[in-house]
Design a protein that fits this description.
single chain; mainly alpha
Length: 326
């Protein structure tokens, strides 16, 4: 009996140590993910600001002609205008971009302050979003383990829906500050809370559709590109886990590109829904995602649904590259 008790204690001790180490590994992974996310968002925030301002910009169909109707070419032309506006004053506003010019010496500082508007809520939202995202993904993937749905993007879709509860309010506040519709997070939060259905959760349904579409496109591209990489290895590699860092970087980068192009129209309308104010009124008067897609294509042409694609290509492909190589 004594030997049995001693053996049981050793087993319990080993099990406790294993659980402790597992929790330590999870904590390290969580901390590493947070650090990587904070760094990526801080570095790419100016591009995100430019993307948001481009998506908010309306160019009537009659004013679009020739090369300027091509999405990426249009982004370059309008992007220079956005940068020019940013150098005029750090208090850039899409409501009144005709601001009094400042001295040349202040141009760079003005641009930096203008393009980094909305960074604080963006960074503050990283931790709570991760606290919802990671446990949700573990629960979803654990529930699907051993089922035919295990090798599908459903776990990612369910996780995206769950994290949207936290991410949408952060995006609403960030976007409205980036556009200069509000001067601070407190002002944006106060205004959004008074907005009812068009407040903190404006664009929630569009966000869920965006996340679902992005996850499906991303998963499909990832599987196809990994299959191609294994095929081109000449039989030397038989499993995706054997792919090296360079291959994973290329696959992640390409996956981000494809997913960004496919989902850009949804992202454009989502941005406008989040920043227009109350549902059905405001700058765009969109009643929802479908109404916004139809109204934008009629008034501005189909190409307008890909406005802001260029900076989004950079941010999504870079983020995807980092994610699949770390």
């Amino acid at each position: 009996p004594d030997r049995f008790v001693a053996r049981r204690r050793r087993v319990d001790s080993s099990l406790h140590e294993w659980k402790r180490r597992r929790m330590a590994v999870k904590a390290d992974v969580f901390a590493g993910s947070i650090a990587a996310e904070l760094t990526t968002k801080a570095l790419l925030h100016p591009l995100d600001t430019i993307k948001t301002r481009l998506q908010y910009t309306v160019v009537p169909k009659r004013q679009r002609a020739g090369a300027s109707s091509i999405p990426i070419v249009s982004d370059l032309r309008l992007g220079f205008r956005v940068l020019a506006d940013a150098t005029r004053s750090p208090e850039h506003s899409m409501k009144d971009p005709s601001l009094r010019p400042r001295s040349r010496a202040a141009d760079a500082a003005n641009a930096a302050r203008s393009l980094y508007r909305g960074l604080t809520p963006q960074l503050v939202g990283v931790v709570p979003i991760a606290l919802v995202y990671m446990p949700s993904y573990e629960v979803a993937s654990g529930a699907l383990k051993g089922t035919p749905l295990q090798s599908t993007p459903i776990a990612g879709v369910l996780t995206g829906v769950a994290s949207a509860v936290v991410r949408v309010p952060v995006s609403v506040i960030k976007s409205r500050i980036q556009l200069g519709l509000h001067q601070s997070a407190g002002e944006a939060l106060s205004h959004a809370r008074r907005g009812g259905r068009g407040g903190l959760y404006a664009g929630l349904r569009a966000t869920v559709v965006l996340d679902t579409s992005y996850a499906v496109v991303q998963f499909t591209c990832l599987e196809q590109l990994r299959t191609l990489a294994l095929r081109f290895s000449g039989g030397e590699l038989t499993d995706p886990t054997q792919l090296g860092t360079k291959a994973n970087a290329a696959i992640g980068f390409a996956t981000g590109l494809f997913a960004a192009v496919a989902t850009e129209p949804i992202d454009v309308v989502r941005t406008r829904l989040m920043t227009q104010g109350a549902k059905g009124v405001g700058a765009f008067a969109y009643d929802g995602l479908a109404h916004g897609l139809a109204k934008a294509s009629r008034a501005e042409g189909m190409a307008s649904l890909w406005r802001g694609l260029l900076p989004r290509l950079v941010t999504k492909s870079t983020g995807s590259l980092v994610w699949y190589t770390t």
